[in-house]
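hey
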């Protein structure tokens, strides 16, 4: 990931338009903060992918929210939707008019970026009209940069999916794990299951009731997993519910769309979480700075005491 990031930074000066792919179910959490820094100086198309799995009302809400930021346009897309593909080339030209209208115009250079498993390779293949990027359900399938000529007007520069070294918002980490953007080995399935159950009880309780034929809404994430585990036969010896198996069932259904079209975060949720995370970061920095100052003061006092003792 570090190597890929360095390679992207080296090429940014020659790029006219950024194309950032995010998962429409997690438009904020599936953004790489490094990319946010890059797009501050580049016109950007944010493509909300997998909209066939996302809540359409929430997708529209996120598009409105994102386009309030300068230099950003959005497109909603899923792999069966061919009608929006032609809009991407046209939008690239609108966002780089000085290049498109230049007498020496050759091609607009667009760089496509995104974290693992947000549908980047699927989109590239659709744009190119042929299988040129490897597609897989596991994160980090694309390993290196490649260049694709989309048409006479746009050259697309692909990049590997890039996560960032530390996810400051733990909620974002769990959500990314839930949709498969973080490898299953990185987060315990039971942890994912409990977080997913908690989220769905708040956001889409009726989907849980319908999917698992529940007679009443569970009052906690534990009760939710136990209830669906009983319905789906996830039992251990003695009749206890196998919470790991129940969690696997819930996460599989969520990722596969069996729970319907879900969006797991809203702009209002993310703004509140950003404030909370920034407060925690500031508090940790203050604590670290205080500890550092105390260590220096103790070291200085020890040195002074040693000098007095020698005298």
């Amino acid at each position: 990931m570090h190597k890929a990031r360095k390679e992207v930074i080296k090429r940014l000066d020659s790029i006219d338009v950024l194309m950032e792919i995010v998962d429409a179910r997690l438009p904020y959490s599936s953004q790489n903060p490094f990319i946010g820094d890059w797009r501050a100086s580049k016109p950007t198309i944010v493509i909300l992918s997998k909209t066939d799995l996302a809540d359409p009302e929430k997708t529209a809400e996120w598009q409105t929210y994102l386009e309030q930021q300068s230099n950003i346009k959005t497109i909603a897309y899923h792999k069966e939707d061919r009608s929006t593909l032609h809009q991407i080339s046209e939008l690239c030209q609108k966002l780089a008019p000085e290049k498109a209208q230049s007498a020496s115009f050759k091609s607009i250079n667009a760089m496509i970026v995104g974290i693992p498993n947000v549908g980047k390779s699927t989109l590239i293949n659709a744009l190119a009209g042929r299988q040129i990027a490897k597609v897989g359900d596991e994160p980090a399938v694309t390993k290196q940069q490649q260049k694709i000529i989309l048409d006479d007007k746009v050259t697309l520069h692909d990049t590997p999916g890039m996560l960032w070294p530390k996810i400051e918002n733990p909620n974002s980490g769990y959500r990314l794990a839930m949709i498969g953007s973080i490898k299953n080995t990185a987060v315990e399935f039971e942890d994912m299951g409990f977080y997913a159950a908690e989220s769905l009880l708040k956001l889409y309780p009726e989907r849980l009731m319908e999917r698992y034929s529940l007679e009443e809404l569970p009052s906690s994430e534990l009760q939710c997993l136990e209830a669906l585990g009983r319905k789906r036969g996830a039992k251990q010896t003695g009749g206890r519910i196998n919470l790991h198996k129940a969690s696997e069932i819930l996460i599989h259904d969520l990722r596969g769309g069996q729970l319907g079209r879900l969006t797991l975060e809203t702009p209002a949720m993310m703004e509140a979480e950003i404030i909370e995370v920034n407060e925690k970061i500031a508090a940790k920095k203050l604590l670290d700075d205080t500890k550092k100052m105390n260590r220096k003061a103790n070291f200085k006092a020890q040195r002074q005491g040693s000098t007095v003792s020698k005298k």
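The first helix runs from residue 2 to 11. DSSP finds twelve helices and six strands in the chain.
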